[in-house]
Specification:
The protein is α+β, with helices and mostly antiparallel strands. The protein is about 25% helix and about 40% strand. The chain contains four helices and eight strands.
Length: about 130
């Protein structure tokens, strides 16, 4: 859902902790966390099924992640396409701020050209939440 290209998932999936999201015993999505270092955890993937979006599940999930990570980490980071307007808005609304860009990330790490909002993905925008 959040990353449909299997090759990209395989690069981090086996090194991340992946958790299902359920509502009323119904799978509605998942999220994955990757331990970067002693201070930082990376939110590698957060996805809510299309039918279950716009119901607050993503925000509830981020709130839960913050509670769980707060005593252990100082930062939560996440990367998304620089043209991912809705994703960037979502993370900013939930206390994240832009702090870096991985230039040419989508050109260097994906064989196929990826488009979002009719724009070719090129750079990855990095956002950070500080406790």
């Amino acid at each position: 859902m959040a990353n449909e290209i299997r090759e990209a998932l395989d690069q981090y999936l086996w090194y991340s902790e992946v958790y299902p999201l359920k509502r009323n015993n119904h799978h509605v999505g998942l999220f994955g966390l990757y331990h970067q270092d002693a201070e930082t955890v990376e939110l590698k993937n957060i996805a809510v099924t299309e039918n279950d979006q716009r119901q607050g599940i993503g925000e509830q999930t981020l709130t839960h992640i913050k509670k769980v990570c707060c005593p252990k980490y100082k930062y939560i980071i996440v990367g998304t396409a620089d043209c991912g307007i809705n994703q960037i808005r979502f993370y900013k609304r939930n206390g994240f701020h832009k702090y870096d860009v991985r230039k040419n990330f989508f050109l260097d790490h994906y064989r196929e050209t990826i488009f979002e909002n009719s724009l070719k993905l090129k750079d990855m925008q990095l956002l950070k939440f500080e406790f």
